[in-house]
Amino acid sequence: MIIHPSSLTHSAQPTTLRTFGRRYPIKHLINISSAIAILALANNLSAEESDGHITQNKHSNITEAEVVDTIKRMFHSFSVESDDRNNFYDVVTDDFVLYEMGQIFSASEFIELAETFNTIEDDWELTDFNISIDNQSAHAYFRNKGRFVTLTEGKKRLVKYEWLESAYLVRVNGELKVKFYFSDAVNETSEDLSD
Q: Mapping DSSP to helix (H, G, I), strand (E, B) and coil, where does residue 92 land?
């Protein structure tokens, strides 16, 4: 970059810089530099996807809101209200592991198990989150209250659970995903429902 000699004098001409043989007024270069800086900053900020979940740049810090959002998305993905249970694979890692009911499940084993419950209604209430965040991972433990209506041989049954749960999440290609999940049922009630 060469400074144009006229920019060194106090003349009425606008100040210019000579770059690659062309003259540019400094005010245009400042505007271009500002635009580049804004684009770079926008690339590092989080964005809300059309389905409402928050994505982050692969180098950005994990937030507590992102941790909670990812866990809630996991539950929604296998809910009876979900259009596609394969969305579960979007929020868990390829090597996902679940410890529940004294057993170890992979992602596909868990989805197969969930399909056997004959659930026609489900709700979860996740509360009391305690979250620890590191550079590219997070750990959360919390309470979960679940309410389920099942239909077996024409009979409806209401089942309520309370769990203490824990999740370990990692950033994979910019997306926060659940790598490990532990669930311990601490209370269960059930009753038949009449039509």
A: strand
- Digit-by-digit pLDDT tens for the chain (195 residues) are 444 444 444 445 555 545 555 565 555 545 555 555 454 444 444 445 545 555 445 557 999 999 999 999 999 998 888 878 889 999 999 999 999 989 999 999 999 998 888 899 999 999 999 999 998 999 999 999 999 999 988 899 999 999 999 999 999 999 999 999 999 999 999 999 876
Residue in 8, 167, 25 with CA at minimum distance from that of residue 91: 167
Instruction: Determine the topology of domain 60-193 in CATH.
Output: Nuclear Transport Factor 2; Chain: A, (3.10.450)
> Which long-range contacts does 1-7 make (Cβ < 8 Å, 24+ apart)?
none
Task: Output the pTM of the full model.
Answer: 0.70
With CA atoms as reference, report the closest residue to 183 among 74, 70, 103.
103
116 touches 85 (CB < 8 A): no
Residue pair 34/18 in contact by the 8 Å Cβ criterion: no
In the chain, what are the domain boundaries?
2-44, 60-193
175 dihedral zone (left: phi>0; alpha: psi -120 to 50; beta): beta
Backbone φ and ψ of 159, nearest 5°: -125, 130
